[in-house]
Design a protein that fits this description.
Layout lengths: L36 H18 L16 H24 L10 H7 L7 H20 L9 E3 L5 E3 H18 L1 H10 L2 H8 L5 H12 L6 E4 L6 H8 L3 E6 L2 H9 L5 E2 L19 E6 L11 H10 L1 E12 L4 E6 L2 E8 L3 H10 L2 E10 L5 E9 L9
Parallel strand pairs: 3-4, 3-6, 4-5, 6-7
Antiparallel strand pairs: 1-2, 7-11, 8-9, 10-11
């Protein structure tokens, strides 16, 4: 079997990241000053478990952006980061001020064909490498955290600072693959999630369903993003709409199909959103329903998702979405999903700007309080006459 041609190189990261030892990283939120030495090993192990979970998400070798590694490539890199830092820490413990050999991470990725490695094997090796370096950190004597070593460019580290530097590297890359972790977190918790949400319909969701249906033509065709348990699609169909169920989580799609309804595995950022049910040319949707699902989309990716949804919706078609209100993003566990998921928080004006830039006009925006006291932005938007064509 011929070997696949090499992927175009991802954008090289030439920055000197040692500044994260002095200030919090604005991208992933890591704060080196807040890390206690005793927590390093525990965090390394939990990070590795999350990476192994991410590799279970669909298409781990697919790059979501041309210049960015896939989940598989990031996982290979993190595995090798653990091995490299284990070697460096051991050198610092065994020798006085050792000089570390240079490691070109981009050349390693190309030479070892990270993109072709087996995800299951990578997951096992990553967890093993993480446990090895965590064990090394566990064994550092109290008086040895100040021992020194030199990187090939002259940067000086102590065992304490290199542990924090190492930890930022893997925490930051987990942030890079947070979407895959979130998909996999739902994938392993589908049964409990379905049981918890099938019949629980908050009043504001029921009211939103009724208003959405009333504003659409009879028998309107709706694309649902993030169908999950299937609750909302069922309620929309009971009110006379035709719904295309989709989800990015394979187990949700499998469960919906087992219920006897059609459902598609679909990522709104990368997959074809065109409605293929029509017997002739595909027709645009009359509306899009995205209840509490796009809150997992990375902030930089949401404008493109909104644009792609506009491109497959008819002029004046409706879009209902809900996002958590707040600043930044973070990991959270609650309800039946015990594995951390990434949530991205939005404020009203930036969300309005993102919608407008994608071809949507806000018709209604309501702030509500959730079951756990969190705040939500509930939006109904209308596709403009021109929208953003060609993004399907």
């Amino acid at each position: 079997m011929p070997i696949a041609p090499p992927l175009p190189p991802a954008t090289s990261d030439t920055k000197d990241w040692t500044w994260v030892l002095d200030e919090a990283c604005p991208e992933c939120g890591f704060d080196a000053a807040a890390v206690e030495p005793g927590a390093v090993a525990r965090t390394v192990r939990s990070n590795a478990a999350a990476f192994a979970l991410a590799l279970r998400a669909p298409h781990p070798a697919r790059r979501r952006h041309d210049g960015t590694w896939s989940t598989l490539e990031y996982a290979c890199h993190v595995r090798d980061v653990h091995r490299t830092f284990d070697e460096r820490v051991r050198l610092m413990l065994d020798h006085d001020v050792p000089l570390f050999a240079n490691w070109d991470q981009d050349e390693t990725a190309r030479a070892e064909r990270y993109d072709l490695q087996d995800p299951a094997e990578v997951a096992l090796a990553l967890v093993e490498a993480a446990d090895a370096v965590a064990t090394t950190y566990d064994g550092v004597p109290a008086e040895a955290w100040g021992r020194r070593g030199l990187r090939s460019n002259g940067s000086e580290f102590t065992v304490d600072s290199i542990a924090r530097y190492h930890l930022h590297d893997v925490v930051h890359h987990l942030h890079d693959v947070a979407g895959a972790v979130t998909v996999a977190a739902y994938d392993v918790a589908v049964a409990g999630y379905r049981e918890q949400t099938q019949d629980l319909v908050p009043d504001h969701v029921r009211d939103a369903l009724d208003a959405f249906v009333a504003a659409l033509p009879e028998h309107a065709r709706v694309l649902e993003i993030g169908s999950g348990s299937g609750r909302d699609a069922r309620l929309l169909e009971q009110r006379g709409l035709s719904v295309r169920r989709t989800d990015v989580t394979p187990a949700f799609v499998d469960a919906l199909r087992a219920d006897g309804v059609a459902a598609d595995l679909l990522d709104p950022l990368t997959d074809d959103l065109t409605d293929r049910v029509a017997p002739t040319e595909p027709q645009p949707y009359d509306g899009v329903w995205a209840n509490a699902c796009l809150l997992h989309v990375a902030r930089a990716d949401l404008p493109l998702v909104l644009m792609r949804l506009a491109a497959v919706t008819r002029p004046s078609g409706l879009f209902r979405l809900s996002l958590k209100e707040g600043d930044g993003d973070g990991w959270s566990t609650h309800g039946s999903v015990t594995t951390p998921r990434r949530f991205v928080y939005w404020r009203e004006q930036p969300l309005r700007d993102a919608l407008a830039g994608a071809g949507w006009s806000v018709v209604d925006l309501v702030h509500t309080e959730g079951l756990r006291g969190e705040r939500w932005l509930n939006v109904v938007a209308q596709r403009g006459e021109r929208g953003q064509e060609g993004a399907s």
